[in-house]
Amino acid sequence: MLDKNVKDLLNTQINKELYSAYLYLEFANFYEDEGLSGFNNWYTIQAQEERDHAMLMLKFLQMCGESIELLAIDKPEAELKTLMDPLQKAYEHEQYVTGLINNIYAAAYDVKDFKTMQFLDWFVKEQVEEEDNASTLIKKMELFGTDGKGLYMLDQELAGRTYSAPSLTLD
Ligand code: FEO
């Protein structure tokens, strides 16, 4: 069993990760409507990764013998007007998620919950990658997105992203 606060934070994080998946599907739909199927592909895969994150949290709680309460997933809150909007909102969102992960880590640290800290190590590292990917996309859009040909090439690049399962597995 886990400390109640740590358990509750992990339980809530399942919901936050599923919300992230929802948010990225919203972005994918936006780009599809704009005729950018590569950007759609990028965020559809991103949504799959977020679902994986939720499932890892869920599996970890199950393995710790905890009961899980699935909470309602909010409607994605994002007003999307320009092609840059989703990229900026994604970066802000990943920074927010990093804060959430750090919060859980701090709660586990406070009660010397080493197994949760070890589990979360993967997420701490993953957030570095998530933020880096998000900020790199903004830079690429700033460099190439204002020119039609550049945008087309960037869309082609993002179309090449393929899904890979998380390197963390729990059995
Ligand atoms: Fe689950 Fe994008 O962090």
Outline of this structure?
The protein is built from five helices and no strands. The two termini are 18 Å apart. α4 runs antiparallel to α5.
Keywords:
171 residues; mainly alpha; Ferritin; elongated; binds MU-OXO-diiron
Task: Explain this structure.
There is one protein chain. Helices cover 74% and strands 0% of the residues. Helix 1 packs antiparallel against helix 2 (37-63) and helix 3 packs antiparallel against helix 4. With 171 residues, it is mainly α. The mean pLDDT is 97. The chain has one domain (4-70, 82-159): Ferritin, core subunit, four-helix bundle (Ferritin, Up-down Bundle). The structure holds MU-OXO-diiron (FEO).
Q: What is the topological layout?
A:
Blueprint (H helix, E strand, L loop, with lengths): L3 H30 L3 H27 L21 H26 L3 H31 L3 H12 L12
Helix pairs in contact: 1-2, 1-3, 2-5, 3-4, 4-5
MU-OXO-diiron binds next to α1, α2 and α3.
CATH superfamily name?
Ferritin, core subunit, four-helix bundle
Reading off the top of the CATH hierarchy, the class is best stated as Mainly Alpha
Helical amount among residues, as a percent range?
A: over 70%
Number of domains: 1
Q: If you average the pLDDT, what whole number results?
A: 97
Element-level helix/strand string: HHHHH
Global shape? elongated
Most strands sheet: none
Instruction: Extract low-pLDDT stretches.
Output: none
Radius of gyration: 17 Å
**N-end to C-end Cα span:** 18 Å
Q: What is the CATH topology descriptor?
A: Ferritin
The CATH architecture can be given as Up-down Bundle
Number of strands: 0
**Approximate strand percentage:** under 5%
Structural class: mainly alpha
